[in-house]
Write a structure and sequence with these properties.
It is built from 14 helices and 4 strands. The longest helix has 20 residues. It is globular. The model has no long low-confidence stretch (mean pLDDT 83).
């Protein structure tokens, strides 16, 4: 098809153009990592759950962004004469969720290859090797938190597994399950799907687990507790109380992984009591 001139039919012309675009190494090399850098910079600017939600629910040039879950239109596996929107769990860097609790030599080898590739791309976009390693480590820690509710490869091979995943929910039921996760908002705003009467939700346990991570409720409870402490403390002046409450209310809720994890070394400390020159 690619020998000779440009094809005439519409579909053939699309394939022809896509092939030549992908094979245009001069143009791709001229762009370098600039397109990837734009994506990385946008993610790097996220500093709160609200900003993360905004990122997930915005479409860029008509394309939805990658998320912590998957959602797409597909043929209904039960009623094959229609399409249905599938809302499902995320993929994992290790591939098999069992690898997080009980890693195998084969799994470690595959993971090492993915890590090497990911760190290479992150360094190309401007991160140091240490920063790239930390970001991949953060990714693995997040996935480890989610892995207990993600079916293992062995479970997926069970003959009855696929049938067990055909779980239909209404829009109201999906709204309850999504919690703080902007599943419906992303579907309708970023992907442009109209509201449906029915969706398929194979693993609601995944969204329950993800909600434990994706929220500011715990932070709000802590802040409210400090409000009570400050309001009921008698030994501080009204002016000090006012400044403390203003500072408390100005706290940014940044409930995400830090760029670096500070390690605390207690080996230098003595555990003897103060009378014995301990701390």
């Amino acid at each position: 098809m690619f020998a000779g001139g440009r094809p005439e039919s519409h579909d053939a012309r699309l394939v022809y153009a896509l092939y030549h675009l992908s094979a245009d190494w001069d143009a791709r090399n001229a762009l370098g990592v600039a397109p990837l850098k734009e994506i990385v910079d946008r993610i790097e600017a996220i500093s709160s759950v609200d900003e993360l939600t905004a990122y997930f629910t915005e479409a860029v040039d008509g394309e939805p962004r990658k998320k912590l879950w998957t959602s797409f239109s597909t043929i209904d596996p039960v009623h094959t004469d229609r399409h249905i929107i599938m809302v499902n769990l995320c993929g994992l860097l290790r591939g098999d969720s069992a690898e997080y609790a009980d890693p195998t030599p084969e799994g470690e080898d595959i993971t090492a290859r993915y890590i090497k590739f990911a760190e290479y791309l992150l360094v190309r976009t401007g991160y140091s090797e240490e920063e790239a390693q930390q970001k991949v480590e953060n990714c693995l820690k997040l996935e480890e938190m989610l892995s207990p509710v993600i079916p293992t490869r062995k479970e997926r091979m069970d003959p009855d597994f696929q049938a067990s995943q055909n779980k239909y929910v209404t829009r109201d039921e999906l709204q309850k399950v999504e919690g703080n996760i902007p599943v419906l908002e992303e579907l309708e705003n970023a992907q442009g799907f109209p509201a449906r009467e029915q969706y398929m939700l194979p693993c609601p346990e995944f969204f329950e687990k993800l909600n434990e991570i994706y929220n500011t409720a715990v932070v709000d409870e802590i802040i409210e507790a400090y409000h009570d402490v400050l309001n009921n403390t008698e030994w501080i002046s009204d002016e000090t109380r006012r400044h403390a409450l203003e500072k408390l209310d100005s706290i940014d809720r940044r409930v995400l992984f830090p760029d670096s994890w500070e390690e605390y070394d207690y080996e230098v400390h003595s555990r003897h009591c103060s009378r014995e020159a301990g701390f």
